[in-house]
Amino acid sequence: MKKLGFLSFGHWSPDRGSMVRNASDVLHQSIELAVEAEKIGLDGAYFRVHHYARQLASPFPLLSAIGARTSKIEIGTGVIDMRYENPFYMVEDAGAADLISDGRLQLGISRGSPEQVIDGWRYFGHEPQEGEDHADMARRHAEVFLRLLDGEGFAQPNPRPMFPNPPGLLRLEPHSEGLRDRIWWGAASNATAIWAAELGMNLQSSTLKTDETGEPFHIQQAKQIRAYREAWKAAGHEREPRVSVSRSIFALMTPEDRMYFGRGGKEEDQVGIIDQTRSIFGRGYAAEPDQLIEELRQDEAIAEADTLLLAVPNMLGVEYNVHVLDSILRHVAPALGWR
After folding, report:
1. Inter-CA distances, 26 with 153, 161, 202, 306, 335, Å
2. Gap between the Cα atoms of 300 and 271, Å rounded
3. DSSP SS3 for 108
4. Which of 271, 282, 315 is closest to 54 using CA atoms?
5. Which residues, at least 6 apart from 2, have a Cβ–Cβ distance to it below 8 Å?
6. What is the CA radius of gyration of the chain?
7. DSSP string across 152-199
8. How many helices (H) does the chain have, and how many strands (E)?
9. pLDDT, tens digit only, all 339 positions of the chain
10. Which residue(s) pair with 307 in the sheet?
11. Which residues, including other chains, have CB under 8 Å from residue 5's CB and lie 6 or more apart?
C-alpha cells in the first residue's frame, strides 16, 4: 500500500482557458478539490506556497478551512519557504490548523525555490545573520520552529498577568501534540536530506533535484531516499520516517485527456541551472493505462517512497482534476500494488 495525494501549485490567471480566474477562485476550488478527493479515497491534499505570484501564498487559512470541511484526508504543504517565516508565529498558526483538522496536518517546509522578486524575504523583515546566506537562514528558522513544536516552556511569565498562568515557563499556544512528528523537509540535495533525517523530519523529494551524479533523475532520487533512511537509522529515532515523491502522471482515458496531455514532450529528464547549481528535473508520465503502468514500474524513486503526490493542473478546474485523480486510483494504482 502506498499513500496517494495530490499536489496543487495553486495557479490562477484571467487568461483564456483558465477555470481559475482570480485568487478567490483558487482558494475556493482548492477547498472543493480536497473535499472531492477525500470522497474518492485519496489520502492527501497538498499545496505549494509561492510569494509575489498568482499562486497560493498563505497556507494556514486554507489548511484550516479544508480541515473544517473534511474528516480523513491528510492536509499538507509542499513546501513552505522558511526564508519568509517567523517560526514563533508559524507555530501558533500551525497548531491551530492542526487542532481544527484533528491532527491531520502534514507540513512540508524547505529553504524554498527561486522567487518572483529578488530577495523577497527581506520585505518580510528577515535578514541572514553574519556568515549566513539565505539557505542557512531558512535552516535556522526551521530548527527554531522544530524546537518550539516540542512544546517546552521557554518564556518567563509576567508576575502580574492579565489571566492566570500555569506554573513554570510558558510555551506558545495552541500546542498540538504530535505535530512535531508530521514535519517534512523538501530536500534538493543528498546532504540536506541527511540533515533532515538527523533532525527527525520526514522527507519530501519533488521533481527537481541537484544533479549530483549525472544519472537519470529517478535513480538519483532513489539514492537520496536510501541515504536519508540510513541517516535516520544512524540517528536512532524511535519512529519510522515517511518519504514522499511527486510526479506529473496522467492516464489518457478520454479525448479531453489526449488533447491536454497526449502530445508528449516531457518523457525525458531535463537539466538546467537553478541558483547557479546544476539541477535535474524529473520526467512526466502521460499514456494509456497499460503503458503507464509499465513505465511507472521502472521508476525506482516511486518504489522507494511510501507516499506519492500527484501534481494536478489546477487551472483546469475541480471536476477535471477529480477525473484525473480518479483515473489513477481506478486504472493504475491497483496494478502497481499502490492499492
Report:
1. 38, 42, 28, 29, 33
2. 19
3. strand
4. 315
5. 305, 306, 307, 308, 333, 337, 338, 339
6. 20
7. ---BPPPSS-SS---SSSB--SS--TTGGGGEEEE-SSHHHHHHHHHT
8. 10, 13
9. 899 999 999 999 999 889 999 999 999 999 999 999 999 999 999 999 999 999 999 999 999 999 999 999 999 999 999 999 999 999 999 999 999 999 999 999 999 887 889 999 999 999 999 999 999 999 999 999 999 999 999 999 999 999 999 999 999 999 999 999 999 999 999 999 999 999 999 999 978 888 889 999 999 999 999 999 999 999 999 999 999 999 999 999 999 999 999 887 677 878 887 777 788 888 999 999 999 999 999 999 999 999 999 999 999 999 999 999 999 999 999 999 998
10. 3, 244
11. 37, 42, 43, 44, 45, 46, 73, 74, 76, 244, 307, 308, 309, 310
Per-residue model confidence (pLDDT) at position 329? 98
In sequence order, the 6+-apart residues with CB closer than 8 A to the CB of 80 are 49, 59, 90, 107, 108, 109, 110
Which of 339, 304, 335, 280 has its CA nearest to residue 230? 304
Residue with cell 541537484: 210
Cα dist from 311 to 93, 103, 267, 274, 291, whole Å: 26, 24, 16, 21, 19
Looking up cell 535552516 gives 139
246 torsion bin: left (phi>0), alpha (psi -120 to 50), beta (else): beta
For residues 104 and 72, give the distance between their C-alpha atoms in angstroms, rounded to a whole number.
8
Instruction: Give SS3 for 338.
Output: coil
Q: 0.90 exceeded by the pTM? A: yes
Bond into 164 cis (ω within 30): no
